[in-house]
């Protein structure tokens, strides 16, 4: 059989091949970078990973560097289900044989069987179903430890007065000749081809090979998983990584199979090396959230991406779009934006509660916010960001995937971080020169969206709070005056 396996740049692990010696086609398309302005370090990571895989496979692979995929995708090809609608349409058009998706634990059949006939699609229900179906953290028919959800143990504040969590530092990445070539090529594309990137270049921070990814996985499970759980929602200005695994990028490049990650985490719990709340909290992110948003991407119609239930029509301002952290005085957002600018990565709480929360409060167009997250984060893909941003973070889907908007004022950020102490604003103040943009923004958001939110029973308390506010007009006026200026 002369059929070759076409591997996209997010299908780089051994589990995308049927046999270790199967002939492979890899294509590096430059046109991808002309269409969108990606983070420079994301472009570097993806190209480095693809080229490392080509080098590893040697003669087994044909590696083509072209303008478009179509130029190089010739002959009889099979491909594991691609991860975007555009890529799927392309492989169909080119006549490749499309196999079932790989790189996720649950299958589309699992998901459809679970979703059909349900009014509300909730991650928690999907996750429990997946744990049963795939026997993950189960003791017979019951969840390990007798409980499905240990979130309540995983919301600890950061340690007071500490600069960092003190978790062991992940193994460093050593760049090689391939990285040097990638960097030179990207410099040249910027200089000669008018291709633009966002964010700063910097040493590669994320795995580009399976060996690097496995080293990070091993180290995480041995040294960082235990403290991960309790502190997974906390933020410290001096410790952007805390005990997070940073495995989302290698997982989404296909370098790691989520099932192997889950099995190692469960083994660590079974051997007594890590507590259940840490193992469960981590597995919930992979088997729960990651698989869930993957399926939602395909399950919802393409128009889901332009959902806009809160009628948010504001434009994302340039300082935010360009990651201009130096233009910002609010300490939390300046620090988080700096993290995105310098690394293309911050963990899930700054994404949701600092960046996403700010965008939703200001009413920026949800599709544009999703696109920004997709382009600016090393682990961002259309399938990842659509439900995560449009649904969860911006609540633009009228509650199809979450029960209430993740809107919060400065009090949340103050509780879960050390940002507010050194900030020129005060999280308790909502009007005046010291008014925290999150606190003021929160009330202005509730006020503006009252008609959309008043029938949501989970929003009853905040809406009652809003009605009791005597200065709401002043807050709204002040936030309108702030407009798109950097806080
Ligand atoms: Fe952020 Fe407000 Fe705290 Fe400043 S006071 S760090 S703006 S939450």
UniProtKB/TrEMBL annotation:
Q: Can you say what this protein is called?
A: Deoxyribodipyrimidine photo-lyase
Instruction: Show the Pfam families listed in the entry.
Output: DPRP
Q: Where is this region: Disordered?
A: 138-172
Q: Which PANTHER family match?
A: SLR1343 PROTEIN (PTHR38657)
Task: Return the InterPro entries for the record.
Answer: Crypto/Photolyase_FAD-like_sf, PhrB-like, Rossmann-like_a/b/a_fold, UV-DNA_repair_photolyase
Q: Which domain of life is it from?
A: Bacteria
């Amino acid at each position: 059989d002369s059929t070759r396996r076409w591997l996209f740049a997010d299908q780089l692990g051994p589990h995308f091949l049927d046999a270790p010696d199967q002939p492979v086609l890899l294509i590096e398309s430059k046109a991808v970078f002309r269409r969108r302005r990606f983070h420079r370090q994301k472009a570097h990571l993806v190209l480095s990973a693809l080229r490392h895989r080509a080098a590893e496979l040697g003669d087994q692979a044909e590696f083509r560097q072209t303008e478009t995929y179509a130029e190089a995708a010739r002959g009889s090809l099979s491909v594991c289900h691609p991860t975007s609608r555009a890529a799927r349409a392309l492989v169909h058009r080119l006549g490749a044989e499309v196999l079932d998706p790989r790189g996720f634990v649950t299958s589309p059949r699992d998901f459809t069987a679970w979703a059909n006939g349900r009014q509300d699609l909730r991650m928690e229900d999907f996750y429990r179903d997946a744990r049963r179906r795939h026997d993950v953290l189960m003791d017979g028919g019951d969840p390990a430890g007798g409980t499905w959800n240990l979130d309540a143990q995983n919301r600890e504040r950061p340690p007071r007065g500490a600069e960092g969590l003190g978790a062991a530092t992940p193994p460093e990445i050593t760049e090689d000749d391939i990285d040097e070539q990638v960097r030179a090529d990207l410099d040249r594309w910027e200089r000669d081809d008018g291709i633009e990137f966002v964010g700063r270049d910097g040493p590669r921070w994320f795995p580009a090979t399976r060996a690097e990814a496995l080293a990070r996985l091993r180290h995480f499970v041995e040294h960082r998983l235990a403290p991960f759980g309790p502190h997974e929602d906390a933020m410290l200005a001096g410790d952007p990584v805390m005990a997070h695994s940073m495995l989302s990028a290698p997982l989404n490049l296909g370098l790691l199979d989520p099932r192997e990650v889950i099995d190692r985490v469960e083994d660590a719990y079974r051997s007594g090396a890590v507590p259940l709340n840490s193992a469960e909290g981590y597995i919930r992110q992979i088997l729960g959230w990651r698989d869930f948003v993957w399926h939602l991407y395909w399950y919802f119609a393409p128009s889901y991406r332009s959902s806009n239930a809160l009628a948010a029509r504001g434009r994302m301002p340039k300082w935010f779009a360009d990651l201009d952290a130096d233009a910002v005085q609010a300490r939390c957002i300046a620090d988080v934006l700096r993290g995105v600018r310098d690394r293309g990565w911050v963990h899930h709480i700054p994404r949701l509660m600092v960046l996403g929360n700010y965008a939703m409060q200001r009413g920026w167009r949800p599709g544009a916010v999703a696109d920004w997250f997709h382009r600016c984060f090393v682990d961002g893909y259309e399938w990842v960001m659509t439900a995560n941003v449009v649904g969860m973070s911006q609540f633009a889907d009228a509650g199809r995937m979450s029960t209430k908007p993740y809107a919060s004022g400065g009090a949340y950020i103050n509780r879960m971080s050390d940002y507010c102490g050194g900030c020129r604003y005060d999280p308790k103040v909502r009007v005046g020169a010291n008014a925290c943009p999150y606190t003021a923004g929160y009330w202005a958001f509730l006020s503006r969206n009252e008609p959309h939110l008043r029938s949501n029973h989970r929003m009853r308390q905040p809406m009652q709070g809003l009605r009791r506010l005597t200065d709401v007009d002043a807050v709204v006026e002040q936030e309108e005056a702030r407009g798109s200026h950097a806080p």
